[in-house]
């Protein structure tokens, strides 16, 4: 079992402290280790000391050792992929490694480290028996964020190609109902990803997931928006704040509130 306690026993629990009690961040209270079966390397997630200061309340994504938001899945996607579960340990490890990468202070070095760390994340997900498709989707979207943050112009071009490929793929799929020859556009989208070489799988997974799951996400978002509207109306009628229905955990305070 690649996830172990600090003394080498199989990891049978994650000890976390939710801070604040109605917040969305968790402090790691017991360290653990991951043994990567691919590289043979060991990765350690340290514990956050109980007396350590919390990040500023207005920081939505604090990069601090020993602090995690578990899997960084937007609330509106929780119906597809939960923010916790079998993916919790790999997600916490990935958050810790992301802190290390950000602290390098060199974009190229951070990009190289994050590419390996994202691979480790995907491997850890599979080790935790996260389904294959879900593992690759979670890997693809953290990798997309990595390319956005550290990839520079090439990262922007990669994401632009994903967006264009998605539009072409969706448009061709719809147009094929009337003119089947439009399906010729789909292999063109695939071939266009090949020049990215080692990043071609990332382009293909991102584009393919948006083409296939995009319509499902659209229907889901419409249903969620209607439900949130009903929630907000009920909250107003009950004398509450309708903003409370947007996120099921506490909203970060503004900098002025934190002073």
Walkthrough of the structure:
By secondary structure, the chain is mainly alpha-helical. The chain has seven helices and six strands. A three-stranded antiparallel beta sheet has the order 1-4-5, with helices on one face. The chain has a three-stranded antiparallel beta sheet with strand order 2-3-6, covered by helices on one side. Strand 2 (16-18) and strand 3 (26-28) form a beta hairpin. Helix 4 runs antiparallel to helix 5 and helix 4 (152-175) packs across helix 6. It is globular, with a radius of gyration of 21 Å.
Unreliable runs, pLDDT <50, ≥5 residues? 253-259
Give the amount of beta strand, in percent: 5-15%
> How does the helix and strand content classify structurally?
mainly alpha
Query: H/E series, N to C?
Result: EEEEEEHHHHHHH
User: Oligomeric status of the shown chains?
Assistant: single chain
Write the layout of secondary structure elements.
Blueprint: E1 3-5, E2 16-18, E3 26-28, E4 32-35, E5 42-45, E6 67-68, H1 88-102, H2 107-127, H3 132-150, H4 152-175, H5 185-193, H6 200-237, H7 255-258
Antiparallel strand pairs: 1-4, 2-3, 3-6, 4-5
Helix pairs in contact: 1-2, 2-3, 3-4, 3-6, 4-5, 4-6
Keyphrases for this structure?
259 residues, disordered C terminus, three-stranded antiparallel β-sheet, 50% helix, mainly alpha
């Amino acid at each position: 079992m690649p996830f172990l306690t600090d003394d080498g026993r199989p990891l049978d629990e994650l000890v976390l402290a939710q801070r604040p009690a109605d917040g969305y961040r968790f402090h790691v209270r017991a360290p653990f280790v991951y043994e990567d079966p691919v590289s043979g390397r060991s990765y350690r997630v340290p514990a956050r000391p109980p007396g350590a200061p919390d990040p500023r309340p207005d920081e939505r994504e604090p990069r601090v050792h020993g602090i995690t938001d578990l899997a960084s899945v937007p609330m509106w996607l929780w119906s597809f992929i939960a923010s916790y579960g079998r993916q919790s340990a790999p997600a916490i490890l990935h958050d810790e490694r992301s802190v290390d990468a950000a602290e390098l202070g060199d974009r190229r070095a951070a990009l190289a480290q994050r590419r390996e760390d994202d691979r480790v994340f995907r491997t850890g997900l599979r080790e935790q028996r996260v389904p294959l498709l879900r593992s690759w989707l979670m890997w693809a979207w953290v990798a997309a964020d990595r390319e956005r943050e550290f990839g520079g112009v090439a990262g922007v071009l990669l994401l632009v190609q994903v967006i264009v490929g998605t539009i072409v793929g969706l448009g061709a799929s719809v147009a094929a109902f009337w003119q089947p020859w439009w399906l010729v556009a789909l292999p063109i989208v695939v071939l266009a990803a090949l020049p990215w070489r080692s990043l071609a799988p990332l382009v293909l997974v991102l584009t393919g997931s948006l083409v296939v799951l995009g319509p499902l996400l659209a229907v889901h978002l419409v249903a969620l928006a209607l439900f949130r509207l009903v929630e907000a109306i009920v909250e107003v009628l009950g004398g509450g704040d309708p903003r409370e229905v947007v996120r099921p955990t506490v909203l970060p305070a503004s900098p002025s509130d934190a002073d």
